Amino acid sequence: MLFRSPTAPAFSPTTTTRIEINGALGGLGYGGSAVNWAANQSLGVPLLNAVSFNHDTRFTLDTSFTGQDLLRLRLRAGNFGGSGFFSNPPTPLTRLDIAFEEPACTTTAAFCGRDVLSVNRAFLELPLGAGLRLSLGPRVMQVDLLPVWPSAYTASPILELFQRAGAAGAYGRRVGAGFVLAWQPQGMLRGLSLACAAVAPEGGNGSPEEGGLFTGVGGQTNTVQLAYTRASWNLTATYTNTAQGALLRGTPLASQLAAGAREGTLQSWGLAGYWQPAQGGWIPSISVGWGQDDFAFARFPVPGLKGVTSSSWSVGLQWSDVFGAGNNVLLALGGPAQVTALRGLEAPGLDDGALALELAARIRISDDLSLSPAFFWLPRARGAMGGTTSVSEALLAPAGAASPLNLSVWGVVLRSTLRF
What we know:
The protein contains 3 helices and 19 strands. The chain is mainly beta. Strands 1-5-6-7-8-9-10-11-12-13-14-15-16-17-18-19 form a 16-stranded antiparallel β-barrel. A 3-stranded antiparallel β-sheet has the order 2-3-4, with no helix packed on it.
């Protein structure tokens, strides 16, 4: 039991506590010539096609000392690590937006601490005057603190790859120590927004050889965002520079090249925006995004490779308040980050194209509870690596001799969200 002195300061009267519990019930189905049905494997990796029921639970504490600032602490727990809805092979692109487990467990671990409650966010936002605002903390996410999110496709997110505004590298969603400085002026410039952010996953490590802020080994992500927003539309340009070991949400080839490269940075550009009607109904909001990434690394895992370019895109339609207030229908189509060009290496047989489709509905049960049935499909889930786990084999395939093997995946999931 904790005892507090009568003179000790109490919480601010503006303190609020929110709890959100997300559940996901569903499973994956696979197809294609790369499937070994007898062993229930693809490329030697077990298929995660059992029906699973997972959760993501968040406890958020917000408080303010002046009414203008914000101190946020979020605790989070989840058990998605062993499911097909996490970033697991052979189809890591089937990760759900709510999928969480930290530290992530492997499916073969003898002992695993699933459902561990951890500090997921811890930051302070401070107004500096003249439209300036500073957010900083030891546990922040890059996209959370940017002042503008250039997408209206947000009613009930399903696949995580559709929550990057079409720019997988520019909106890398890195978590660590960092800050965001944002400027949102009023008056004639109202609607304009300019922000710069820096987040380092190893920012809490004091060794300059292993981590720290503003070092070459801290995995730091630096972002500049310029946006203009009006009542019904937005247009946003973003540039992000990510240090070595980048986590790129893309095909296995693009992701492995980004993670395996060393001594350099991943430079990413994104252009996104949306239009939404003044009222909900049968006219949907439209969200469009595009991104390009340039791998500016000194060392690649494949000899002779000097540079890589990848691109991604997405289009999302959201019908709001259909069949009643709070009910939404969502449809998205897009391409995860995929390798589109190489420098220093001839790869005439390379075809890393991939596509994703998502259809979902959010059904309001009450003010606190909603259900979201969803279906998604990736007809070429592994891009150029549909028949191999080797980056070298995928890159060096001669023209006309690309592997005929392919792996497709579809998923059905029922997402539930309870907030109180």
